[in-house]
Amino acid sequence: MDREREQTAQSFGEEVVKVVRFRVQRFRPEEGKAYVQEFQVPVYRGMTVLDGLHYVRDNLDSTLAYRFSCRMGVCGSCGMFINGFPRLACQTQILELGSDTVDVRPMPNYPVVKDLVPDLGPLFEKHRTVRPYVIRDPRELEQPTGEFLQKPEELEEFLQFTYCIKCGLCLTACPTVATDPQYLGPQALAQAYRYCKDTRDAGMDERLKVAAGTEGPWRCHLAGACSEACPKGVDPALGIQLLKRLALLRRWRLKKPHRPAPLAGERTGVSRRPGIPEPPPPTVESEGSASS
Length: 292
Ligand code: SF4
Ligand code: FES
Fold this sequence. Notes:
Blueprint: H1 3-11, E1 16-27, E2 34-44, H2 49-60, E3 79-82, E4 85-88, E5 101-105, E6 112-114, E7 117-118, H3 121-129, E8 134-135, H4 138-142, H5 152-156, H6 169-173, H7 175-179, H8 185-196, H9 204-211, H10 225-229, H11 236-251, E9 289-290
Parallel strand pairs: 1-5
Antiparallel strand pairs: 1-2, 3-4, 3-5, 6-7, 8-9
Helix pairs in contact: 3-8, 8-9, 8-11
The protein binds iron/sulfur cluster and FE2/S2 (inorganic) cluster.
């Protein structure tokens, strides 16, 4: 290991454990073809694949393109295909991969913008179509008089799906998405279920028209790869099956949509909890919907 690399690792206050070969897929749109480039990266304990890419960019090739922001598994922007599995680069420790080679490629099933940067447009397009927000009477959203009431057991029904960070790794893992671009995919379908089950929502039927349509859960082949890949412990495969059940029960009129949760002031005189500040007046035009 050369002295410069050793110093780089030591600048993090860590001792270099070994040197690992990074095999990184490169792609420049102007050239139109992908190729693999190798880099030698000194690794210290706790170093992540994202740290390794920073090392390459800062010391070996400043043209390397990749996406990241939070560095702590929250923003969902550093999804990559690492040693053949979809992972977040900032959550993947190099030494835990147990290999002297780290193979890094852009996420499959997405167009590539440059090097390791995927175009996540298809993910967000599909997400948008299932109306992933609480649908209510616009007047209640624009001039709220209290919070929407929800019991802990009602929240429990969909809580795990709220942990989705929209990284898109589940679409990368899904074999159906790989062969069927029309399929809405695990992320959007799990979110459709999440909002249909939210007792504050009044838009179940509206949402199901799209989410349980021909491009919806019926196309799932039950591979379960989406849930294995999810870095946040969400189980989108379960969400898809629950969405199927919900859609069938609604179609056969065996289930009524829930009455949307009342505002705090409307139920038996319950008032706002002490200490909860009044909501600010609306500052932008509302389209009758609110994210949650
Ligand atoms: S369900 Fe999991 S893998 Fe899919 S986008 Fe959400 S956090 Fe990522
Ligand atoms: S950089 Fe935000 S999740 Fe990895």
